[in-house]
Amino acid sequence: MKRIVILISGRGSNMQAMVEAGLPVVAVISNRADAAGLAYAAGRGIATAVVPHRDYTTREAFDAALAQAVDGYRPDLVVLAGFMRILTDSFVRRYQGHLLNIHPSLLPAFPGLETHARALAAGVKLHGCSVHFVTAELDHGPIVIQAAVPVLPHDDEAKLAARVLAQEHRIYPQAARWFLDGKLVIEGGVVRVEGDHPQQLYAP
Ligand code: GRF
């Protein structure tokens, strides 16, 4: 049986989508004790742990403690799902090739925060989300799957975020499933899925 460890900082709706998709989530770890997603995970009988970033004076020390907690669950795949800490290069290197993130934009557009507001301000007509392997550069890394949604004339940030989030909940479990099934191949920084599987989704 393959094992997934998910790192969250808050709501945890992407984590919930993975659990509900029947993926083998063995533990949920948060840097915040008040992350709402922890209660959901505990309620489903999944192990939970908190590694409070405030307890550590440096990023390196926090990441070392986090890695120790993660490794205790012997994961095949580590999933960042709304985990709001920038990870050190050494943490990223340790899990390289086994570490996925979801970002609420069509990368490489809008890396970083406030993606929905920035998409609205830029006037783009398509927006969306991307699942990618994590590399040292923030919100870069080989793209596994993307979903696109329309940006509509009367959208505000909340409406657009909700439209994107619904697609996040579809593509992230799909990407994790492909990974666990050994279907993802990275060649020259480009991800291919073995078999006839579309790596994009458009939700009009
Ligand atoms: C999602 O929009 C995700 O793309 C971003 O942070 C948000 C987390 O939401 N990285 P949730 O905690 O999974 O509900």
Give me some keywords for this one.
204 residues; globular; eight-stranded mixed β-sheet; Rossmann fold; binds 5-O-phosphono-beta-D-ribofuranosylamine; 2 domains; alpha/beta; two-stranded antiparallel sheet; single chain
Layout of helices and strands:
Layout: E1 4-8, H1 13-20, E2 25-30, H2 37-43, E3 47-50, H3 59-71, E4 77-80, H4 89-95, E5 99-103, H5 115-122, E6 126-133, E7 143-150, H6 157-180, E8 184-187, E9 190-193, E10 200-202
Parallel strand pairs: 1-2, 1-4, 2-3, 4-5, 7-10
Antiparallel strand pairs: 5-6, 6-7, 8-9
The structure holds 5-O-phosphono-beta-D-ribofuranosylamine.
The total strand number stands at: 10
Beta-strand share of residues: 25-35%
CATH class of the largest domain: Alpha Beta
Mean pLDDT: 97
List the domain count as a whole number. Answer: 2
Give the C-alpha Rg.
16 Å
Q: What string, H for helix and E for strand, traces the elements in order? A: EHEHEHEHEHEEHEEE
Condensed summary:
The protein is of the alpha/beta class and 204 residues long. 33% of the residues lie in helices and 25% in strands. The chain has two domains: 95 residues, Rossmann fold (3-Layer(aba) Sandwich), CATH 3.40.50; 103 residues, Formyl transferase, N-terminal domain (Rossmann fold, 3-Layer(aba) Sandwich), CATH 3.40.50.170.
